[in-house]
Amino acid sequence: MAPTQPVPIVRIADGERQFALVRWGLIPAWVKDPKGFALLINARAESVNDKPAFQNAMKRRRCLFPADGFYEWKPHGGSKRPYLARPTAGGPIAFAGLWETWMGPNGEEMETAAIITAQANAAMAAVHHRAPAIVQPEQFDFWLDCRNVDENMAAELLAPAPESLMEVYEISPAVNRVANDAPALHEPHSADAAEPPAEQPRPVPRKRQPADTGQGSLF
What we know:
By secondary structure, this protein is mainly beta. The protein contains 4 helices and 10 strands. The protein is about 10% helix and about 35% strand.
């Protein structure tokens, strides 16, 4: 998934968990023209309660981003190499997120969201200093309960992931193209590994043609 695309979130509506598809890239309700507003795909955990763009959502509209991993790119020479971070034990995880509803002057309406990031743990720090803040299953209700859990209490969950939770490894640069979407993208890949030599086609043995005996031959 890429910024501005529809992404799944889980939030509380009428006291129940609700699945929704929203645009990845939060637009605060007070923005007049989204075209001139910066794309907010992430919110820093350290300042999420202080930034005007996130304050209201942190108080009233917290959500979870279900995922099975995330990508990050590490500078290498003049380029960047992609890495995958995913749960060591497999299965889904949930990123802490915020959502908003933007209303336009002509009655148009758009729901948007952003992922909250925290300092990376040691495993991830070798690739990038930031990573999505991961909410543990036993903390889901606490994070989503904006009625009874205030923004300061909720912010205490926004910590680096436990060291054993995620594995991080290099993957193919094919992931750089959003149109590529296949399980093979998650296979380990090293740009430094020597490519195996191309297999040369084996010569096809030629059979000696027998003398024409006047009888047909299958060979």
